[in-house]
Amino acid sequence: MLVLREASVTDTLRRIAVYLEAEFYEGHGEATMVLDNANGKGTIMGYNLSPGLGCLLYNITFYKEVMYYKDESLMNPLYFLYCLEGHVYHRFDKEGNDHRMDPLHNVVIFSNNDAVNMVRFGVNEKIMGTVIFVVQEMLPQTQDINPTFMRDVLADIFEVMKDEANYRHVGKMMLAEADLVRDIITSNGEGIVGRLHLESGLLNLLSHQIGATISSKTDIAQNSPLRKQETHKILKIGNYIAKNLAGNINISNLQSEFGLSSNKLQKGFNHVFGKSVHTFISDMRMERAKMLLETTDLSISEVAYTIGLSSRSNFSKMYQRRFGHLPSDYRKLVETASACYELTYKSQGTPNLKEAEIIAFHTELSKKKKKLDITGCLVHYGNDIFQILEGPKTHVQSIMQEIKNDGRFINFEIVWEGFKTVKVFQGCQMAMLNEKEKDLSKKTIPFDRFERELRAKVKEETSTITDRFWSNIRNFLLTVDNN
Question: Engineering a disulfide at 68: which of 2, 341, 437, 467 sits with its beta carbon 3.0 to 4.6 angstroms away?
Fold first, then answer.
């Protein structure tokens, strides 16, 4: 049995690594445990986000029972847990039975009077989830939390719980946060861009969990027409539908695949998703179609085929019923001046290209882009260059061709291009991260890992990844400008 008394994320994770005979790596405000032995396989990553605010990210499978007791005498944090996959068990030191925390629920734990938290993990099942903790005594020092929302709301929660001996809240299922949590866990938060992405994602998740804690009065499982096991099967079916929209999906096939009766399917979908199976499938297809119309050059017929519909006319009718206009009209709307064409590319400088030449190139190009109503940003790190161009499609493509013909840059690769309704940047900006990275991180930006992630995604998912990337760069520039 492992007893943890450490106060910091790094020290806690180091102790766990020693206990499990795992590798341990420590960075600036972060640590990683890599396990690959008879005890299990996977990673646990820890981050000190700011004074009083930290997190642990689990993406691991334990081959043996792993259980630890957390002595809270050094710090008594408020824990926000979200388990995406697998099962975690918890009890306070004076409780007789473990309480199983099932996936997708909002869980909040607080132990008063220096109590001990016992945590046990499922064996031979993947544990994927987040633990965000807040230490009350350090909240006044935490300037990174918005003082008008999160910090004050957290203080109110502590005030409510100050008379509680022990507090464990297992709230409603938070289905919409599943993708956010998966993205946080798999993003690896290295370097400036990765760290900004991770921190924004965690603060976003924390705000959602705080909101759910305040508003939740009853668990979704109460008054449910389904047993909890069946509820999770409905969630699994929803994920299956989302990943197989191009296939022949109907109630009969879902019954055969998952072993639920038609009545259970309908009641389950109405309870969990608030709609029938047929409506759920239709809505998922139309939402995917909308994304494809916005982010790809697929024809209307190709979009219909991609979402599992063989008839263009039937697709158009369904789309108009869902959104109030035809897909062809929406495509025209996207391509108008109210939208913009975005192109993100990666390239490298020729050997011996100096930083001053890149700055001169950007300055000269910015003048041309301004005349053509093109905005964007150029990011330079080492010999790698990422640039986003936003504006009218013909103008963006023209500037892109001019960049390729410049001669100072090679190895071009288009990361993503397509129509967007909102620009990321309002002008032409530049981030020379060679100089500025030391302000936020001592590590290099993992562009190679970022590229591998992009190549592993389909086009519409790549659009989301590039959105986050450039939003984080914009936030970084704002941070640097304000320092």
Answer: 2
Which is it for the CA torsion 224, 225, 230, 234, positive or negative? Answer: negative
| C-alpha to C-alpha distance for 280 and 352, rounded to whole angstroms | 56
First to last CA, the chain: 46
Q: In whole angstroms, what is the distance from residue 171 CA to residue 154 CA? A: 17
Q: How far apart are CA 187 and CA 200, in angstroms?
A: 12
Alpha-carbon span 201 to 468, nearest angstrom: 10
Q: How far is CA 378 from the centre of its chain?
A: 24
Q: Which residue has the tokens 């060679």?
A: 434
User: Helix, strand, coil: what percent of the chain each, to 5?
Assistant: 45, 25, 30
Contact yes or no for 459/295 (Cβ under 8 A): yes
213 and 157 Cβ atoms separated by less than 8 Å: yes
Structure-token match 């290099």, residue found: 444
Q: Which residues make Cβ contacts (< 8 Å) with residue 132, sequence separation at least 6?
A: 53, 54, 55, 79, 80, 81, 202, 205, 206, 209
CB 127 within 8 A of CB 86: yes
pLDDT in tens, 299-314: 999 999 999 999 999 9
Q: Is the pLDDT of residue 150 over 90?
A: no
DSSP secondary-structure letter at 337? T
At 251-276, the pLDDT tens digits run: 999 998 888 888 888 888 887 777 88
